[in-house]
Amino acid sequence: MGLPVELTILIEELRNARQVRRLRRPYHHPLFAIPARHHRSSLVQLELALAGGIRQNGHADPAEPAAMIEVTGIDHLYVAVSDLERSEAFYDRVMLQALGFRKNTFVVGSDPHIQYFNRHFGFVLRPCRTRVAHDPYAPGLHHFCFRVDSIADVRAVAQALRTLGVDASEAEHRPEYAPDYWATFFSDPDGVRLEVTNYRQERRERHDLWTLRHL
C-alpha cells in the first residue's frame, strides 16, 4: 500500500519548509492526528508512525519493511590519562561544576576509574599504560565536543570554565562551520582537545526530520 496522497503532500511540505514552525497548515487525516498548536510534537507522532509502518485499524501494513536497528546514543567514552589525580582535579571543574555531570568511581582489575555521567552517557578516566604525548593529528581521537542547548548556554559554560581557572576560549561564532555555530575550545592536562557547542538548527532538523528525509 502506498502512502496516502495527503501524507505525501505533507512530507514534501516538510522537506521544503525545513522547519516545522513554517508549516502553513495543520495536517488532518484518519491515520494521523496533528493538532495545529504543537507542530513539533506532532511531527514526532508522524515520525513514529512512519518508522513503524502505516497503521490502519491498529495493524501495521505488511508491505512496509521492518525498521532497521538504530543506535540511540553514545553509552560511554574512556580517556586514558597520564596522571589520574591531576586529571580528576581538571575534570571535576569541567564536568561537575561547569557542565552539571555527576561522578562515581570503580575499579577494573587493579586500575582505578573515575566516571562522570549525565542522563545521556558516561565519560570515564582511567590510568594510561603507555606514556606518550597526545597528538590530535595521530591516529585516534582528534577532539571531543559536548553539546548544550543554546548559544546562551555556550557563553555561560565558557564564562564558568574561565572563572574556574580552565584556559577556555571566549564563546566564539564560527560561521565557517555552520551559520549558527558557536563554541568554546580548551584542552585537558594531557592535551586532549575539548569543545562545547550549541544545538544548532541543522542538527535539530537532522534529528526531527530523520525518517522523512529517508523515505
Please provide a written account of the structure.
The protein is α+β, with helices and mostly antiparallel strands. It folds into 2 domains: 65 residues, no CATH class; 126 residues, Roll (2,3-Dihydroxybiphenyl 1,2-Dioxygenase, domain 1). It has 6 helices and 12 strands. The strands form 4 sheets. It has a 4-stranded mixed sheet, covered by helices on one side. A hairpin with a 4-residue loop joins strand 7 and strand 8. The longest helix has 15 residues. About 12% of the residues have low confidence.
In short:
With 215 residues, this protein is α+β, with helices and mostly antiparallel strands. The protein is 31% helix and 25% strand.
Largest sheet: 4 strands, mixed
| Strand-pairing-aware structural class | alpha+beta
Secondary structure tally, helices: 6
Fold-level CATH name of the largest domain:
2,3-Dihydroxybiphenyl 1,2-Dioxygenase, domain 1
Q: Roughly what fraction of the amino acids lie in strands? A: 25-35%
Please, what is the CATH homologous superfamily of the largest domain?
Answer: 2,3-Dihydroxybiphenyl 1,2-Dioxygenase, domain 1
Strand arrangement in the largest pleated sheet: 5-8-7-6
Descriptive key words:
215 residues; alpha+beta; 2,3-Dihydroxybiphenyl 1,2-Dioxygenase, domain 1; 2 domains; four-stranded mixed beta sheet; 6 helices; globular
